[in-house]
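Student:
Attend to each token:
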Amino acid sequence: MGWMLQKQNVHKIGFADISDLNRDPMIAWQHKYYPFVSIGVGLVLPTVLSALWGDAWGGYIYAGLWKMIGVHHATFFVNSLAHTLGDKTFSDHHTAYDSVLTALMTFGEGYHNYHHEFPQDYRNGIKFWHYDPTKWLIKGLNYFGHTYDLKFIEEHEVNKAKVQMNQRRLDNDMAVLNHGQHHNILDELTLDEFNIRVNHGEHLIIIDGIVHDVKAFVHEHPGGRQTLLNFVGTDSSRLFAGEEGAHTHSKEARKFLNAMRIATIKQTNFGA
């Protein structure tokens, strides 16, 4: 809340056209007499009402001061907690999050990621059960004509943003998995160099023109240790692909295989 205690540079904080608000007589009156309204309603009124049953100090402290502290911090949470806790449901290009907990503590402002992604929507919580009292009030008044021309984002656009965000998460998850080095940056081995390294005890196999070191995987091979050792020093591309009656390996198996890449082979006509 420190930013509220400093005078802002109007040339740096952006410009908002509030000419319509300035023309509203009720808002203009409230702005003019704000100190009297805030102190009168926030402190004097609860103190006077509580004094009617002999608890003026209770009204002043609990219904006045503590209430103001709670409401102010609930408001401040919109610029702090709503940018700290929750899920980035629709976009990660800004720091806002969606959080049920924040919604409860800010009277409905917790679906903040949606608000930042679609600021023209009158809603924060787009589902009818999302805790958003302001949305319910605006929609309720709409039935009686007191609010009109409500702006909202079409469902397919909302779903599009959600799917795109899910894809970004999947891409990030894939990026941290060990799928091995890309074949374009691997060293090259001639067939003779490959054979020499095998003869020196390395557990190398050629599959699809790429040399794989399977030593660390020998004891983990689902088909058994000896099955894998039988093909060390060979081009096992067709067998790995399930040809010649061999077992067809899954996509997951290929991911494990890719993590074992060490080089590419210059000659690919090496018989199995």
Summary: The first strand starts at residue 187 and ends at 189. The CA atoms of residues 22 and 28 lie 6 Å apart. The radius of gyration is 33 Å. The chain is about 45% helix and 5% strand.
